[in-house]
Specification:
The protein has 103 residues and is mainly α. It has four helices and no strands. Helix 2 packs antiparallel against helix 3 and helix 2 runs parallel beside helix 4.
């Protein structure tokens, strides 16, 4: 399988994939499913061979990271309050502590 031919056939879609995977990895819990670092390293190796533009690639990785981070923040701030209502920093047992006993 010729990776250069695959990238050439994909055209600008390869840039879209790098952006989407980077944004997806840095947003809420999607990073567990998407191997963002692997895609970035593969794209960097292809840029080193001359198959991708390194300046465009770096701009897409940074923009994807910022977009995913903003999306994760927006999702968390929009739904986080509803999920954590009633919880506070001091509520519940602490790790390693014995459960309270009643006398």
């Amino acid at each position: 399988m010729d990776v250069g031919a695959l990238i050439e056939a994909a055209g600008w879609w390869s840039c879209v994939v790098v952006f989407a995977v980077t944004a997806g990895e840095t947003s809420a819990f999607i990073g567990v499913l998407l191997p963002g670092e692997t895609v970035i390293l593969l794209a960097s190796a292809l840029a080193g061979r001359g198959d991708l533009d390194p300046l465009l690639l770096s701009a897409l990785v940074v923009a994807g990271g910022m977009t995913g981070d903003g999306l994760g923040y927006a999702l968390g701030s929009g739904t986080g309050g509803a999920r954590t209502a009633g919880w506070s920093a001091g509520s519940g047992p602490r790790a390693g502590s014995a459960s309270p006993t009643t006398s």
